[in-house]
Amino acid sequence: MNSVQRSALTITLLTSFLTPFLISGVNIALPAIEKEFELNAIGLSWVITSYLLSSAVFLLPFGKLADIHGQKLVFLGGIVLFTLASIFCGMAANGLILIIFRVFQGIGASMTMTTGNPILVSVFPPSERGKVLGLNVSSVYLGLSLGPFAGGLLTQYLGWRSIFLICVPLGIIAILLVFFRLKIAMTVKKQGKIDHIGAFYYATGLIGIVYSSSNLNKQFGWPLMLSGIFLMFFFVRRCLRSQNPIFEIPLFTRNRLFAFSNVAALINYSATFSLVFLMSLFLQKIKGFSPQQTGTILVAQPLMMTLLSPFAGRLSDRIEPRKLATAGMLISSAGLFMLSFVNAQTPVLLIVAFLVLMGTGFGIFSSPNMNTIMSSVGKHQLGIASGTSATMRVVGQMVSMMIATLVFSLYFPGSHINEVDNVLFMSSIRILFMISGIICLAGVFFSNSRGNLRN
Question: What pTM was estimated for this model as a whole?
Answer without folding.
Answer: 0.77
